[in-house]
Specification:
It is a single chain. The chain has one domain: Up-down Bundle (A middle domain of Talin 1). It is built from 13 helices and 2 strands; from the N terminus they run ααααβααααααααβα. The longest helix has 36 residues. Its main location: membrane. It holds the Pfam family Na_Ca_ex.
């Protein structure tokens, strides 16, 4: 039997989304919409855990990561279509923000909360380091190389280069999913789950699982839809504060990644760090592997401008993130110090986004 709140919150959020699409959100409605968004986040995490417990790891974490990323891609493409040339850099800003939020903010919170409660936590290096290698390659191909290519002006790709990057991104993500769920599934499973009550609890019924899957979709659509409705207010606040336009991408990524962040931190606090890292790295890979092909198709089909290359400052931050991540995940053991290091990098990312 599903808790009443887990059923009610997605429906309330969907109701606010419908009202917002019909009449817009303003004044008190904005705050109520934001509250409904937070409620949908909590409900989505609960239903994702129900589905994950039924299908098992690591497929369970993949369900939440892919569901959110698909809806995120729809949000980005719709904003691109509505904004025209002014939104040419939105995919880049959102993807870069997602990578920085996940690799520093989410991972940092997981390692810090897990380290404070359990001192030292372990994970399988084979899966995490393989995912990190794929993430480095995807990020470089999608966000770094456009800054240095010479066939087109500015930090952009030519149509042929963009098509190649999109195909390579999708192919590498599909290989990672195959390795994670089929060929080397054991690389992404905890080494010792004998004392984990979550693993050994009775699985939900098939009816409960299907109900949770449906409510998960409702909650995630509501999260991203409400984030889109709130985005004009965010853009207005950013403009009034005199902050760079890239802050809009950061804000959108923060809103969309709330369900994954909460789910990952909960898992780490429950001493399931492997689940947290599966979710974090899988989300980052899906964010690039699905977003780049989608926006590339939109840009090529509709002849829209697309700016992908990062600035020098962001290139340094991305390089620092991957260097520290490689050190963090080298031994298969983590503590709160490593979490603090990632959170400092995340705080630096947020500060420099506001004060470039």
């Amino acid at each position: 039997m599903l808790p009443i709140w887990s059923v009610g919150l997605p429906l309330v959020a969907a109701t606010f989304l419908g009202l917002g699409l019909g009449w817009g959100l303003a004044g008190v409605g904005l705050w109520l919409g934001a509250a409904a968004l937070m409620g949908a986040v909590l409900a989505s995490v609960h239903h994702a855990e129900v589905v994950a417990h039924k299908v098992g790891e690591p497929l369970g974490t993949l369900v939440l990561a892919v569901a959110i990323t698909v809806i995120e891609v729809s949000l980005i493409v719709s904003l691109m279509l509505a904004g025209g040339p002014d939104k040419a850099a939105l995919p880049r800003d959102t993807i870069f923000s997602a990578v920085m939020i996940i690799c520093n903010g989410v991972v940092g919170l997981c390692l810090l909360s897990g380290g404070l409660r359990h001192q030292v936590q372990t994970f399988r290096t084979e899966g995490v380091n393989g995912g990190l290698a794929a993430l480095v390659a995807l990020s470089t191909l999608s966000l770094v190389l456009p800054t240095f290519t010479t066939s087109s002006a500015g930090p952009t790709y030519t149509p042929a280069q963009l098509a190649f990057a999109a195909a390579a991104s999708l192919a590498l993500w599909l290989v990672f999913v195959f390795v994670q769920t089929v060929r080397h599934r054991d690389f992404f499973l905890p080494e010792d789950d004998a004392h984990d009550p979550h693993v050994h609890a009775a699985p939900p019924s098939t009816a409960q699982t299907w109900a949770s899957l449906g409510l998960l979709m409702v909650a995630l659509v509501s999260v991203v839809g409400l984030a889109k409705l709130l985005s004009p207010s965010i853009e207005q606040a950013v403009a009034q504060a005199g902050a760079p336009k890239a802050v809009v991408g950061v804000a959108i990524a923060l809103l969309v990644l709330l369900p994954e962040t909460w789910a990952a931190v909960r898992a780490a606090a429950a001493n399931r760090l492997q689940t947290s890292l599966n979710l974090a790295i899988g989300s980052a890979l899906a964010s690039i592997g699905l977003t780049i092909p989608a926006v590339a198709v939109a840009a090529l089909w509709l002849d829209m401008p697309l700016v992908l290359g990062l600035s020098n400052k962001d290139l340094v931050m991305l390089g620092l993130t991957f260097l520290v991540s490689a050190i963090t995940f080298a031994q298969g053991r983590t503590n709160m110090l490593q979490g603090a290091v990632h959170l400092v990098i995340f705080a630096s990312f947020l500060f420099l986004a506001l004060v470039p």
